[in-house]
């Protein structure tokens, strides 16, 4: 299962420039994220977070900036939207009306998020018989995911 990592610069309490490293990955059938902070100036190394659940915006933004978004699309006709609705409600804790919107997006332009998020959704949707595929980034870990096929 694919995981993603991003590093961002962060100011340490000592005044030095520190590095925050964030990861998002699937572990034991759950979507996890973690965050580590390390400062070379004062030798601080902290694990700020490690656990399952939706990643906060700053983590998602760092991953999206580093790797580009992935898009999850319906890959075929589904007889009923109910299985997809169930999965989306479970995974995103969305209301029923929000889940309906998400299923609508899935069947039109696709849902966009980080690659681990979309892979996590894809596995669950496929397990319920919903055919889905992920579009790009073309190569996981590619430094500049913005280049299309030429
Ligand atoms: Zn420091």
Describe this structure as you would to a colleague.
The protein contains 4 helices and 7 strands, in the order ββββαβααβαβ. The chain has 150 residues and is α+β, with helices and mostly antiparallel strands. The protein folds into 2 domains: 3-67; 70-135, Ribosomal Protein L30, Chain: A (2-Layer Sandwich). The strands form 2 sheets. Strands 1-2-3-4 form a 4-stranded antiparallel beta sheet. The protein is elongated. The two termini are 28 Å apart. Bound molecules: zinc ion (ZN).
Blueprint of the fold:
Elements: E1 4-11, E2 17-27, E3 30-39, E4 44-52, H1 57-67, E5 70-74, H2 82-92, H3 96-107, E6 111-113, H4 115-127, E7 132-135
Antiparallel strand pairs: 1-2, 2-3, 3-4, 5-6, 5-7
Helix pairs in contact: 2-3
């Amino acid at each position: 299962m694919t995981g993603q990592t991003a590093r961002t610069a962060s100011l340490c309490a000592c005044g030095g420039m520190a590095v925050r490293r964030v990861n998002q990955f699937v572990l034991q059938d759950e979507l996890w994220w973690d965050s580590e902070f390390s400062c070379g100036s004062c030798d601080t190394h902290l694990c700020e977070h490690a656990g399952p659940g939706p990643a906060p915006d700053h983590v998602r933004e760092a991953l999206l900036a580093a790797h580009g978004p992935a898009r999850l699309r319906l890959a075929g006709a589904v007889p009923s939207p109910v299985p997809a609705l169930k999965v989306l409600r479970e995974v995103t804790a969305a209301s029923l009306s929000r889940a309906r919107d998400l299923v609508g997006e899935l069947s039109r332009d696709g849902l966009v998020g980080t690659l681990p998020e979309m892979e996590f959704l894809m596995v669950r949707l496929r397990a319920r018989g919903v055919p889905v595929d992920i579009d790009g980034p073309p190569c996981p870990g590619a430094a500049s995911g913005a280049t299309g096929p030429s």
